[in-house]
């Protein structure tokens, strides 16, 4: 039996991931770092978001 994320929690995760993606693309980081963060956020939505929140590029 797997872990399933759905409903309101899934929607919240989706919104946070889209926000993280937009902020990453708008950041002043170099292109390689942006691509790495985008892939990480897409492949690992929850863990990638948490890592981005703690370690990701800051500023615009």
Task: Describe the model.
This protein has 60 residues and is mostly helical. It has one domain (7-55). Helices cover 73% and strands 0% of the residues. The protein has 3 helices and no strands. The chain has helices spanning 7-26, 31-43, 45-55. The longest helix is centred in the N-terminal third of the chain and has 20 residues, at 7-26. It is elongated, with a radius of gyration of 12 Å. The mean pLDDT is 88.
Characterize this entry briefly:
The protein has helices at residues 7-26, 31-43, 45-55. The protein is mostly helical and 60 residues long. The radius of gyration is 12 Å and the shape is elongated.
Q: Which labels suit this protein?
A:
60 residues, mainly alpha
Helical content, roughly? over 70%
* Low-pLDDT stretches: none
Report how far apart the termini are: 42 Å
Classification by helices and strands:
mainly alpha
Oligomer state of the chains in this structure: single chain
Tell me the series of helices and strands, N- to C-terminal: HHH
Largest sheet composition: none
- Based on Cα principal axes, name the global outline: elongated
Average pLDDT, to the nearest integer? 88
- The radius of gyration over CA amounts to 12 Å
Number of strands: 0
Percentage of residues in DSSP E strands:
under 5%
How many structural units, i.e. domains?
1
Q: Provide a count of the helices.
A: 3
């Amino acid at each position: 039996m797997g872990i399933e994320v759905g409903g309101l929690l899934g929607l919240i995760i989706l919104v946070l991931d889209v926000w993280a993606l937009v902020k990453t693309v708008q950041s002043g980081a170099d292109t390689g770092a942006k691509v790495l963060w985008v892939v990480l956020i897409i492949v690992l939505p929850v863990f990638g978001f948490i890592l981005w929140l703690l370690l990701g590029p800051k500023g615009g």
